[in-house]
Amino acid sequence: MKNFKWFQILAFLLIAQAGNVLGQELLTLEKTLEIAYQNSPDMINQAISLESQRENLNAQKASLKSRFSLSVNPFSYNKSRSFENYANDYVSSESFGSSGAFSISQPITATDGTVTLTNNFGFSSNTVENKDAVSKFNNNLTLSINQPLFKKYNANKMGLYKAELDLENTLLRYEITKLNLEYSVSQSFYSVYSAQQSLETAKEELANQKKSFDIIKNKVDAGLSAQEELWQAELNLQNAESSVYDKEVSLENAKDRLKQSIGMNINSDFSIITKIDVKTVDVKLEDAIGYGLQKRMELRQNEITLENSRLSLIQAKDNDKISGSVSLSVGLQGFDSNVQNIYDNPNDNERVELSFSIPIWDWGARKSRIKIAENNLKTSEINQEQEKVSIEMEIRQTYRNLKNLVFQISIAEKSVENAQKTYELNLEKYQNGDLTSMDLKQFSDQLTQKKNSLTTALINYKLGLLNLKNQTLWDFETGKPIVPSSLNLLELNN
Fold first, then answer.
1. Three-state DSSP class for 164?
2. Spatial distance between the Cα atoms of 494 and 164, rounded to a whole number of angstroms
3. Cα 443 to Cα 17, 107, 153, 195, distances in angstroms
């Protein structure tokens, strides 16, 4: 019967706890990040940009393939009266017809030229005053080649290359935004955890004050202590109750901030599930700096900017200079009143054209554009070097901070242990009447402060380790590199 009674009490407690979390969503850090990745406006905007750049690359690749086009003029009619020399008089004429053209155009990527095959087919009927109508079908098949000369800037190759760089740059921005979001959401998540731990500590303090109040009340009732001690104990109890309320408010405010950061409905409720089990990691500064300079995506972004600056310089040097083009075309033309006899007596058409464009004086415009492009290239090179220095400085600072945090955690753990022993020792003195309730409260407050300091130190270490991971793209806890999934997709696409 006694065991059954304890079973009933345990079942009641479990049901009560389930009622407290009923309707609440249970969030781990991983699930919180997943929600943030889906709902964050910054991530949504980056995803839209990423899709646009993918489509831009697809369009650029498609532009290098054969293009098929068809133009149709189903019906045309014209009636006019004009002076004709052969008749030495004004003559009325009337014509109508229809035509269509089909063409296949193939860019030559290697030379920036174009090969085009065109077929024009049509029918026309012309009537001149006092003469019989003349009706004929005609067809013209032409193969033409157009090739620019003296050009270093290949528009086809450069266009495709720039589209690939733009897509990679957008992928890098997407992943950088994702890493920054991971850090900010983790901060908000751990803020909720910290507020939750502070609430638990405040509740423990309230339980201690209730215990102290009961002790002094019994002593006052027995005439062993002065009434003033009871008043002070009652005040301490009220302060503890107020502290619990304050911590509850702080917890709800921290939850609201987390909801906002991950795009969760502000009216929804949740409870977090986490355990900060800190295992200090042995990090070597030289390795951290090496990983950062090798893997940081900002450096690749600067390389892309540098490459675009080089392309702009090539383009600037290629513009407004001597250029030329050669055009070749061969064709077969036939016409007859009977469509089946169009090519009974065909005509051969050939054309060769060589042209040059020679700028004489542009008032220094080309020279200025080249200078601008050269300056942009120099700026990009300087920014790249400065970015390397900034990355190394960030890693050094984070590394030093981590080393200090390991030391702070050790101190905080020892402080909590000492504060707990001190409180228990003085609680015994308080029970024996050798200590006032005001003095005991000081030791209780000290214990609360040390517990909160330990929680803060643990969270700071976790965030510091996460910050180092983001700065080096290397997970020191698992000993593995952080390879963004979207960059793997880029390699597959190329």
1. helix
2. 9
3. 31, 83, 78, 22
Placement of tokens 């407050």 in the chain: 445
Tokens of 147: 């090739």
Q: What's the pTM value of the predicted model, to 2 decimals?
A: 0.73
Q: Walk along the chain (494 residues) and give the pLDDT tens digit of each residue.
A: 434 333 343 433 343 344 444 456 788 888 999 999 998 888 899 999 989 999 999 999 999 999 999 999 998 888 888 776 666 777 778 888 999 999 999 999 888 899 999 999 998 888 877 777 788 889 999 999 999 888 877 888 888 889 999 998 888 888 888 888 989 998 889 888 888 888 888 888 888 888 888 887 887 777 777 777 778 888 888 888 898 999 899 999 999 998 888 888 888 888 877 777 667 788 888 999 998 888 888 888 888 889 889 888 888 888 878 888 899 999 888 887 887 888 888 888 888 988 888 888 888 888 898 899 899 999 989 988 999 999 999 999 999 998 898 888 889 889 989 988 988 888 888 777 777 767 777 888 888 888 888 888 888 888 888 889 888 888 888 888 876 655 554 544 44
What are the CA-CA distances from residue 74 to residues 71, 97, 101, 339 (Å)? Answer: 10, 8, 11, 17
Q: Which CATH number fits domain 23-55+159-308+373-493: 2.40.160.20, 1.20.1600.10, 2.60.120.10, 3.20.20.120?
A: 1.20.1600.10
Cα-based distances in Å from 47 to 42, 167, 170 = 9, 12, 9
Residues of the chain with CATH 2.20.200.10: 66-108+113-150+323-358
CB 124 within 8 A of CB 138: yes
**66-108+113-150+323-358 is classed CATH 2.20.200.10:** yes
Three-class SS state of 361: coil
Which regions of 283-346 does DSSP assign to beta strands (E)? 323-336
Instruction: Map residue 147 onto helix, strand or coil.
Output: strand
Longest CA pairwise span in the chain (Å): 145
DSSP annotation of 110? T
Hey, how many other C-beta atoms are within 10 angstroms of the C-beta on 469?
A: 21
* Total residue length of the chain: 494
Please list, in sequence order, all residues whose beta carbon lies within 8 angstroms of the beta carbon of residue 169, skipping any fewer than 6 positions away.
Answer: 301, 304
Place of tokens 């102290």: 212
- The sheet with strand 134-149 has its strands ordered as 67-84, 89-108, 113-128, 134-149, 323-336, 347-357
**CATH 1.20.1600.10 spans which residues of the chain?**
23-55+159-308+373-493
- The strand pair at 89-108 and 113-128 is best described as antiparallel
Paired with 146 in beta bridges are 114, 327
Residue 267 φ then ψ, to 5°: -90, -5
